[in-house]
Specification:
Distance between the termini: 34 Å
Oligomer: single chain
Strand content: 25-35%
Structural class: alpha+beta
Bound molecules: alpha-D-glucopyranose
Number of helices: 20
Length: 801
């Protein structure tokens, strides 16, 4: 059993079960479909939104709140006889002792089980696949041998509209709320009579309506309700001791102004040893609908049978999703990550971007272009059709000169052009990865509008992005860094437009190389020649000007001074300039070896590779925010997992598999979180960074869930360690495994076929193929074009040399 002090993984790995609610931070999960999403902590905390967490937030979560994750979706039960009450999710009544507490975070749902005062509660939160809404399904069991009278209070604090406005203009926001109780359907109908859809913060108030009604109801008969937060909670109280719960009297207030809550009371009687099932339902419907209840539908939804079916559909969705990839190696933790949690986290990043989490509050970022085009790496295996749609949508934020917005917001379609030099280049990255998986070349002919004016085919969008990057180079041919590159905090290196990025040069080279196969396929030889020439020119200028003796420099400032050199006091060596030297194939072999060796010498920590060394201790105005961040955290010298994963990839490409796997393992959250009270965040998903030994809080992690690490660790594991390498023409199988692995099995769907791989490693090697059989026949090459086979399953048997 894989476990820590606060919980364990279920036997099949599909759930992380928290057994002690006093975790060092709230440990979250997600529940969502394409439109409706929510995050949920192990105590019931978290918020929900439709489409976008900034502009269309449904429920509240208070920022900088103590305790951390308030409010949330709560069901408090009260024993009418004794007057004792407690929450079925532990919070907000946290000071009570429970006989049992278990929170099961699974894929797309969270179940919290409690036992207290001889009542067992099981509450499952989920978002159905086909509804703009969420369901809290509850089972209450009377464990005692007497009849019990129980009051049930279900409530959530509402926001309904613009979450940023809710913070900066809260007292004004209160004058537009509207909650009524519909007796016929025993449903609270909640709305707001205006909607702030400003593209950015401004005092101007648009004159528009929040287009929705939020319905809050339960399958139990309702004995009281409240739309007024003040009345439900009472004066000088909190969610932990609402006056309505304490007195048993709901105020039955309908509001036309004031802080909104959706709260319902029901009274039930439970015979000895008996149980009851019910559900709380929250739905968002359009105001335009004549009959928002769609009475028959609501009636059907209020049947437990229907709710159970909806939950089964969620489970099936995730079974199917995870079934796309199955691995079995001698390393259980690797298997657990690839089979379940890493795949799942990749799905979360695909839909949440860096935009809706506990550490990314959903108010600022929207969807990042560079993030989005990387985040497709996970989803493209399971749902290429969703990725296709996403790519076409994201391309609308590109300008006709090939540049792009850095981020964009759904609904308002607004974003910022920040002039980060790398952003446009993630477009070709995403398109090629999509084609590598699907060979769906038809996407290239789709026509997409530019953000400014005009339109062009996807193929043209793709070329414009690359040509924009090529045209954004200095005279000697290195990319200008502009306001930063992948590393957002190297943001004051080239304010005058002359500074150059060395990582960016490798990245441009990598992207160019990645496109050659496609350009050939398109018979676009003019572009191919031009881009090949640029690639070679990059090789020359990089190796002539960017080598520091033992590793590559990171950047040049406007005045030509260097960043990331051994002659500096701080920020001597940056990880990305070393890893991408290898990934881009632009470094000669001896420099590859040398720069990776240097990385290994200066950047390796017990939790992975740190991003830069030594961290900045003195502020450098002409470098940027990196030097203002405390040493050892975030971009200033943390183990920044996204960048660390690229070092793993580089080490594999360089042939040092044992080292690569060692770093990969250190990064697996279960390993880096061995000191969980120090590590603090969820041990089942990657965090953006882990504090390096350069800070006294070494090994503390932060920004869990929403990080590019998720897709890269997933695909490095799948493509490079297990060895399924996709390309336009098909699949090359080329495992790179630790020598101690005697055999592995791995399965993956690819272009409509199931590839079932088994690898034998009798001589304890890392790589190199001795023999290969496909469906029992020995073949010469490890390249598979799935179209050459009529069978739906390809059993590939490989013996390493
Ligand atoms: C954050 C950003 C990402 C950026 C990285 C490094 O993760 O979301 O876009 O590349 O930090 O600065």
């Amino acid at each position: 059993m894989i476990k820590n002090k606060y919980g364990f993984f279920s036997k099949d790995g599909r759930e992380f079960v928290i057994t002690d609610p006093k975790t060092p931070r709230p440990w979250f999960n997600y529940m969502w479909n394409e439109n409706y999403a929510g995050l949920i902590s192990h105590t019931g905390g978290g918020f929900s939104y439709l489409e976008t967490p900034r502009d269309n937030r449904l429920t509240r979560m208070r920022y900088n709140c103590l305790p951390w994750d308030r409010p949330g979706r709560y069901v408090i039960v009260k024993d009418s006889e004794s007057g004792k009450y407690w929450s079925l999710s532990w919070a907000p009544t946290i000071d009570k002792k429970y006989d049992l507490y278990e929170c099961h975070h699974g894929q797309g749902y969270t179940t919290i089980i409690t036992e207290k005062n001889k009542i067992r509660g099981e509450i499952t939160y989920f978002v159905p696949t086909d509804l703009n809404g969420e369901i809290w399904k509850v089972k209450l069991t009377n464990l005692s041998s007497r009849k019990r009278k129980i009051e049930v209070y279900s409530f959530t604090e509402l926001l309904m509209g613009n979450a940023l406005n809710d913070i900066i203009n809260q007292p004004n926001d209160k004058h537009f709320t509207d909650i009524h109780f519909n007796k016929e359907h025993e449903t609270l109908v909640c709305t707001r009579r205006y909607w702030v859809l400003n593209r950015k913060v401004t005092v101007a108030q648009p004159n528009i309506d929040w287009r929705y009604n939020l319905l809050f109801t339960t399958t139990l008969p309702v004995s009281g309700f409240d739309g007024s937060l003040d009345n439900f909670i009472g004066r000088w109280r909190s969610e932990a001791n609402p006056i309505a719960v304490e007195t048993g009297k709901m105020s039955n207030t309908e509001i036309t102004a004031g802080d909104p809550i959706a709260a319902l009371q029901s009274k039930i009687t439970l015979d000895k040893k008996s149980e009851i099932e019910f559900a709380v339902i929250m739905l968002v419907v359009s105001k335009d609908e004549k009959n928002p209840f769609k009475a028959s539908q609501l009636k059907q939804l209020k049947e437990i049978k229907t709710i159970d079916k909806k939950f089964e559909a969620v489970k099936k969705y995730w079974d199917d999703y995870l079934n796309n990839v199955k691995v079995s190696t001698p390393d259980n933790k690797f298997n657990l990550m690839l089979n379940v949690w890493n795949q799942y986290q990749a799905a979360v990043t695909f839909d949440m971007a860096r935009n809706s989490g506990y550490y990314h509050g959903g108010l600022l970022f929207g969807t990042g272009m560079r993030d989005q085009f990387q985040d497709i790496l996970g989803m493209v295996i399971a749902h290429p059709e969703r990725v296709r749609k996403r790519l076409l949508n994201a391309l609308r934020f590109q300008f006709k000169d090939g540049s792009t917005l850095h981020n964009f917001f759904k609904i308002t379609e607004w974003g910022e052009k920040t002039n980060h030099s790398d952003t446009p280049l993630w477009i070709p990255f995403g398109i090629v990865e999509y084609l590598n998986e699907t060979a769906d070349f038809s996407i290239l002919d789709e026509v997409v509008k530019f953000y400014d004016e005009g339109e062009a085919t996807v193929y043209e969008h793709f070329k414009l992005a690359v040509d924009f990057a090529i045209s954004s180079c200095t005279e000697r041919g290195l990319p200008k860094i502009m306001n930063g590159d992948w590393n957002d905090t190297l943001d004051h290196i080239g304010p005058k437009g002359k500074g150059e990025t060395v990582w960016g040069a490798f990245f441009l080279g990598y992207i160019l190389k990645k496109t050659f196969e496609l350009l050939e396929f398109k018979n676009d030889f003019e572009t191919l020649e031009r881009w090949k020439a640029k690639y070679e020119q990059l090789r020359n200028v990089i190796n002539d000007t960017c080598w520091d003796g033992k590793w590559y420099l990171r950047a040049f400032r406007d005045d030509g001074s260097e960043v990331g050199s051994q002659k500096h006091k701080q920020g001597k060596i940056f990880i990305n300039a070393q890893s991408w030297a290898v990934i881009s194939e632009l470094a000669p072999k001896e420099r590859e070896n040398s720069c990776l060796q240097s990385g290994r010498k200066y950047l390796l920590t017990p939790y992975g590779m740190q991003i830069v060394w030594p961290a900045y201790r003195e502020i450098e105005d002409n470098t940027g925010l990196i030097s203002r961040c405390v040493p050892g955290k975030k971009e200033n010298g943390a183990v920044f997992n996204h960048a660390s994963s690229w070092f793993v990839l580089a080490s594999i490409l360089n042939g040092d598999i044992e080292f690569a796997y060692d770093v990969y393992s250190r990064m697996i959250p279960l390993n880096s979180s061995k000191r969980i009270d120090r590590y603090e965040v969820e041990p089942y998903v990657y965090a953006e960074y882990v504090t390096s030994p350069e800070h006294e809080t070494e090994n503390q992690a932060s920004h869990s869930w929403l990080t590019g690490t998720a897709v890269w660790m997933y695909r490095i594991g799948l493509d490079y360690i297990l060895g399924f390498r996709t390309s336009l023409k098909g699949l090359t199988i080329d495992p790179h495994i630790p020598s101690s692995w005697k055999s592995i099995k791995a399965e993956r769907n690819f272009r409509g076929k199931r590839i079932i791989l088994s690898v034998e490693n009798p001589n304890g090697k890392n790589s190199g193929i001795q023999s290969i059989e496909i469906n029992g026949k020995s073949v010469e090459s490890n390249f598979i074009n799935p179209d050459d086979y009529s069978e739906n399953e390809l059993n590939v048997r490989i013996v390493l040399k």
